[in-house]
Amino acid sequence: MSEHDRNKEHEYTWQKLYDAVELVFSELAQQGMIGEREYFIVEDDWGWNKVQTELVISSLWPQIARNFQLILADFPKWEITMQVLRNKADGWPGMGTIVSADGIKDELKREFLPLELRDLAF
Length: 122
Known about the structure:
The chain is an alpha+beta fold. The protein has one domain (3-117). It has helices at 3-30, 61-72, and strands at residues 39-41, 50-55, 79-84, 96-100, 103-107. A hairpin with an 8-residue loop joins strand 1 and strand 2 (50-55). Helix 1 (3-30) packs antiparallel against helix 2 (61-72). The longest helix is centred in the first third of the chain and has 28 residues, at 3-30. The relative contact order is 0.15.
């Protein structure tokens, strides 16, 4: 496969995953589970095998991560990142999770989270 073909395949897969992630968030917003301003999907494809998201930390994170795993089942070389959407004034460091078809890497720094969210289990 030529580099041009690999790039086209990457772009196609990235867009397909981006659209699937967008659907997960829009369905949660339609159900009133998250607000439309509580999530963000990075619209730029940086050439990595990942779609990057930011969203407000909540008890829904494990459910959302499992939904992303289902999406990634057919894309074992891809990831979806969930970065905590935060107010810069809150002093929290960057943190989140990396979701792949076969696992969830939890990089939340729980000491910064509200008490009710410190025991989130993926």
